[in-house]
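Support reply, case 0932

Customer input (verbatim):
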Amino acid sequence: MIDRFARLLAPRAPSLAKASAADAGAIAVLHAASFRRGWSEGEFIQLLHEPNVLAHRALVAQTLAGFILSRRSGDEAEVLSVAVDARRRQRGVARLLLDLHLRSLAGLGVNAVFLEVDQQNRPAARLYARAGFYEVGRRQGYYYSDTPPEGGTALVLRRDLA
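Our regenerated output:
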């Protein structure tokens, strides 16, 4: 009986799958809650219809827990956005999404993946470093035009897949 209660209370592992335009509304809501300027549902619908865009989502109990979205060009890809619901952060959801996404990109012939992360976002920077990304540049004031030069700096990261 105690085992049954423990299983009911244990955190559920997310279900990972490709995202589609049907997920655009939920993705837009999560994106808006995660970033200073959220993208609209229409923007996500447009992106998710592009043949060179790859997106994955994580569901927990049929609720969006996170997503990752990238655009391919030749043998390179750029991660456009990653977000995890605040209640699910620090539980490995982003790591699982990133791992699946990188494996999928490699399977599509991508050799290098780039992304930008706010240097202030230490959890994300640690995630990417552990996943093998390394810094190849910086963009001062990239994220916010209303911050001093040291604020809002984007770290440009790269991960080689081949």
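We compared this against your earlier run and they match. Two observations from our side: The chain has one domain: 10-160. The chain is about 30% helix and 30% strand. Please reopen the case if you see a mismatch on your end.
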